[in-house]
Amino acid sequence: GLYATGYPQLGGGGIHIAHMLWGGLLMFVSQVLIMSFIGRRIRRLASIVGGIGFGAFIDELGKFVTSDNDYFFKPTPTILYVMFCLFFLFLKMVEPLFDSS
After folding, report:
1. How far apart are alpha carbons 78 and 47 in whole angstroms?
2. Span 1-41, pLDDT tens digits
3. Are the C-beta atoms of 43 and 36 separated by less than 8 Å?
4. Contact between 33 and 45 (Cβ < 8 Å)
5. Separation CA 29–CA 32 (nearest Å)
6. Sign of CA dihedral 36, 42, 44, 47
């Protein structure tokens, strides 16, 4: 994947804008949408924008859990899997609190 595309980067001249920053921005936009507007369509849009942002944010996890910024840190997929499982379990635990019936 990345090797075949030549490890593309945003930025130039020695500057790299990590997609973690773009992910954080998208998560922020998602929260602004949720807090500013009411409606099913906005909630769906905010969920999609927030999900894309979270994915872009968490994708660089390997880079930030190592002292040498190793993007390809081997335990990263396991850490991601555990985080997603814990997130899923948390949502299942709080789901009854938001049940509208």
Report:
1. 25
2. 566 777 666 656 666 667 788 899 999 999 999 999 999 99
3. no
4. yes
5. 5
6. negative
Burial class (CB in 10 A: 0-12, 13-18, 19+), 49: buried
Q: How many CA atoms lie within 13 A of 30 on its CB side?
A: 18
The residue count of the chain comes to 101
Dump pLDDT digits (tens) for 37-80. Answer: 999 999 999 999 999 999 888 888 777 777 777 777 788 888 88
Q: What is the pTM of this model?
A: 0.67
Q: Are 58 and 83 in contact (CB under 8 A)?
A: yes
What is the amino acid identity at position 87? F
Q: How far apart are CA 23 and CA 8, in angstroms?
A: 17
